[in-house]
Specification:
mainly alpha, 4% strand, 166 residues, two-stranded antiparallel sheet, 7 helices
Length: 166
Amino acid sequence: MNRQTDFGDKLRCERERRGITLQAIAQSTKIAPTLLTSLERGDCSRWPGGVYSRAYVRSYAQALGLDPKRIADEFCECFPATAWPDEPASPESHDGEGNIVEVEGLRLTLDPMPGDRWRRLGSGLAARLAIAGAAVVVAGAASMVGVDFWMALSATSLAAMVRHLV
C-alpha cells in the first residue's frame, strides 16, 4: 500500500467506526459521492485542484468530527499534485514518494507593482484634465457666438459627466 491508499483507508475506517454513510457526508458537504468514494480509495486523479480539493477535504473531515486542518495538511502531503501547499511555493517540491522535483511554471501574484498605482492615478488624472480643458474650450467657443461663458461651461461639464456615467 502507498501513502495515498493508507490515507483513504484511514478516513474510510474512521467514517465506518462512527457509523456515518457516504451519502450523509455527501448531502451535508455538497460534495459528489463519487469524489468521496475515490478519496477513500486513495485516488484523487479526478478531483479539482488547489484550494477546491483542500476545501473538500476540510469539509469531509469536519463532517466526520475530525480536525479539518490536520486532515487537510495530511492530504497535501499525500496528494501534492492535487493539493497545492498553502504557503508560497519554493523552487522545489516533493513528489508522492518523497523525491525532490523541480517545479516549473508561472505563479500568480496579486501584489501590484509599486509604480502601477501611481501610473494609473496619473493616467486617470490626465484624462480628467483633458476633459476639463475640452469643456473650457467649448465654453469659450460658445461665448464667442453670444452664449454666456459660465452657462456654456456648466452645460459642457454636465454633458461630460453624463457621458462618463453612461
